[in-house]
Design brief:
eight-stranded antiparallel sheet; globular; mainly beta; Beta-galactosidase, Chain A, domain 5
């Protein structure tokens, strides 16, 4: 899949602190001048600190200037990956419809935005609440998916934060508390063989460390389970002296999926994806396989049923010599990062 980067900060600078605005010719909600949500597709396209111009989410998929499409951090709903051939012939999109419809902004302020979207083919309605902390360094997203069909159905919900240059370069370090994993390139029906353990993957039988990305993206999608109560992932840009991170309840999102993309021998995108599935296949394949490592590969919504999930994203400054994140602690609403090979702790505030 070809991708393109874009710059949004220059356009945001002159916008009001919040409210529906036009950013790069696209309708958007800008919260406190720091968090921008694109309305045509619902993606988070900018997140930066008050005294920084670095936006990790400088990435977008191809498409028309105002066309709904995936950008930055986007939501995969009602699926992750490709539709079946029959579904594709009926117009279903890769990663579902959430990024292919215009979202409705229900209410907005500098620190709180509520929005929703109806996915017509999937028959699913999604409602989203975004809260931005007073410091502007933490945002909390709560999303509810409701089945508006008269019958129950399987579905998947995967968060797809996508980082790009200049935040992403050869020195950017990716960490997570993922465990057992497998390469999506491994053949069915048992892609979990061979099994790998984060941050390792395999290419032609040789070990690959997924903390780094230089000139070779293979294997380009590797999926892992998360065993702890809280899942987390971080991207530390030592070049920018900035770290982007996420935390979520593993009960909501039990899978972590790492996507890597290179163009012209340079890192172009990394997906720090967490969700309800770890198998990048159409629903007939997911239902046949059922589970990997004891974890379900799809969720289920009965007729009229609603399921709600949440996560937090954050930015913190890091020193030039930062070695990456060993672990993340979430206690009483506070997030603490513990550096690898060091006694240093960083409080997210």
């Amino acid at each position: 899949m070809k991708i393109a980067s874009f710059s949004i900060l220059a356009c945001v600078a002159a916008l009001p602190a919040f409210g529906e605005s036009t950013v790069n010719g696209r309708r958007a909600v800008v919260m406190a001048g720091q968090l921008t949500i694109d309305i045509a597709g619902g993606s988070i396209v900018d997140f930066h600190l008050k005294d920084s111009s670095v936006n990790p989410f400088r990435w977008e998929s191809p498409g028309g200037p105002a066309e709904p499409r995936p950008m930055g951090h986007f939501l995969c709903l009602d699926r992750w990956g490709a539709p079946s051939d029959a579904e594709k012939n009926n117009g279903m999109w890769f990663h579902g419809e959430a990024t292919r419809v215009v979202w409705n902004v229900e209410s907005e302020s500098a620190r709180l935005t509520r929005m929703s979207a109806l996915l017509p083919m999937a028959g699913i309605e999604v409602k989203r609440e975004v809260r931005l902390s007073e410091s502007g360094a933490i945002f909390t997203v709560t999303e509810s998916a409701t089945n508006r069909n008269k019958l129950g159905r399987p579905y998947n919900m995967v968060q797809h934060p996508t980082i790009g240059p200049p935040f992403l370069d050869e020195a950017t370090l990716i960490d997570a508390n993922a465990r057992q994993g497998f390469m999506q390139s491994s053949p069915m029906p048992n892609p979990e063989h061979p099994t790998v353990v984060w941050p390792q993957a395999l290419k032609d039988g040789m070990a690959v460390n997924l903390r780094h990305l230089k000139d070779d993206p293979m294997p380009n999608v590797v999926s892992y389970v998360v065993d702890d109560e809280w899942g987390w992932t971080t991207a530390a840009s030592v070049t920018s002296e900035l770290l982007l991170g996420y935390v979520w309840k593993t009960a909501d999102y039990p899978w972590f999926n790492a996507w890597r993309h290179v163009e012209n021998g340079r890192p172009k995108a990394r997906g720090l994806e967490f969700g309800t599935t770890g198998l990048h296949q159409p629903f007939p394949v997911l239902m046949e396989k059922g589970r990997i490592f004891g974890r379900r590969l799809f969720a289920y919504l009965d007729a009229g049923q609603t399921e709600t999930r949440s996560y937090q994203g954050f930015l913190v400054k890091i020193p030039k010599e930062f070695q990456g994140v060993e672990r993340v602690a979430v206690r009483d609403g506070r997030i603490t990062l513990f550096e690898r090979g060091s006694d240093r702790q960083i409080q997210v505030q």
